[in-house]
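thread from #wetlab-drylab

HS: before we spend reagent money on co-crystallization trials with NAP, can we at least see a predicted complex? here's what I'd submit
DV: go for it
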Amino acid sequence: MSSKPITVLITGANRGIGLELVRQLAEDKGRVKKLFACCRDPNGPKAETLQTLAKQYPDIIVIVTMDVCEMNSIQEAAKAIAPLLGSEGLNLLVNNAGMALESSLQTTTTKDMQDSFNTNVIGPLNIMKEFLPHLRTAAKASKISGMSCNKAAVINISTMEGSMDVTKETYSIAAILPFRVSKAALNMLTVCAAEEMKKDKILFTVLHPGWVRTDTGGPEGEIDVQTSVKGMLKVMSTMKDKHNGAFLDYQGSAMPW
Ligand SMILES: NC(=O)c1ccc[n+]([C@@H]2O[C@H](COP(=O)([O-])OP(=O)(O)OC[C@H]3O[C@@H](n4cnc5c(N)ncnc54)[C@H](OP(=O)(O)O)[C@@H]3O)[C@@H](O)[C@H]2O)c1
């Protein structure tokens, strides 16, 4: 990504795409200085692989407890991370944690929508707000002139199912209404953030990871998690000012809103 190692925060880092992001970034020697791998139950059985990975890279990976739906948890995580960031701030925040409920117009409940919005929209919003001072610090401290994931950036992991155009073609195959609606809101949130923060040179972009074989994507997914993450990291490494507020897939193709 750059010759200067960066600081990175990833949510939902204990399995699936989040865990693979941690693995590939840690394995890429010299790319990352500190990687804050956030998950809601670091000592539970679903975080065992992350714990093993953290032991392999003790100087890089810091596991932090964060439930993206709990404001207290986000604030406690920020309190633990702040002293470790130093004067160079946070370069890259990846809002990856997410949930996908299979439900249609006729079956979706208020709680389904509240849970989906809490996880997929309000969580990322609160995390962006909480870490904004550290992203600003990184933007000011960086010697890179334009926007970049090596300088100060927020990548929100969304989905093609959040696209209005794609929904017209795919709704009959998979309704997943709370997922579609909340990820469409995440897309809008990202564009709003991109507009509001462009004066601070912080990049905000939405990425679709592909249909990936994880617990969310299921075994029928088109690609494995390694391919998705390798692609997204490559796309991130090429992002500049023109990608602020963009919606791209893991291969760098523009997605329809
Ligand atoms: N896989 C696909 O095909 C696909 C397609 C489009 C978009 N995406 C998006 O990609 C992202 C990663 O998904 P994935 O495929 O890796 O799914 P996954 O394997 O099911 O992982 C989901 C992750 O989100 C975490 N999470 C959920 N709610 C959370 C909360 N309240 N606080 C903290 N962490 C929470 C989970 O933690 P726990 O282990 O604690 O539950 C887990 O780490 C999601 O945003 C998803 O919507 C995936």
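DV: The CA atoms of residues 177 and 237 lie 32 Å apart.
HS: ok that's useful, forwarding to the group
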